[in-house]
Amino acid sequence: MSQDNLIKFQCTECKEINYYSKKNVKKLSQMKLELKKFCSRCRKHTLHKEKKKK
Q1: What CA–CA distances, in Å, run from 16 to 5, 21, 29, 41?
Q2: In the chain, which residues have pLDDT < 50?
Q3: Is the pTM of this model over 0.90?
Q4: For the chain, which terminus, N or C, has the lower number of CB atoms within 10 Å?
Q5: Cβ neighbours around 9 below 10 Å, total
Q6: Domains (ranges, CATH) in the chain?
Q7: Mode of pairing for the β-strands spanning 6-11 and 17-22
Q8: Are 49 and 23 in contact (CB under 8 A)?
């Protein structure tokens, strides 16, 4: 994956970064993505929010 449009998903409970994905940068969406994904540290499905870039 290219680094310019790479986003990270962070678990809201344990704050661990578990997933990476791509986002269409051209659309300029102001809202951050929120997905319910499986966290291996919590061992359950939790809400994962898009973490801001550096």
Answers
A1: 20, 15, 24, 8
A2: none
A3: no
A4: C
A5: 22
A6: 6-51 (2.20.28.120)
A7: antiparallel
A8: no
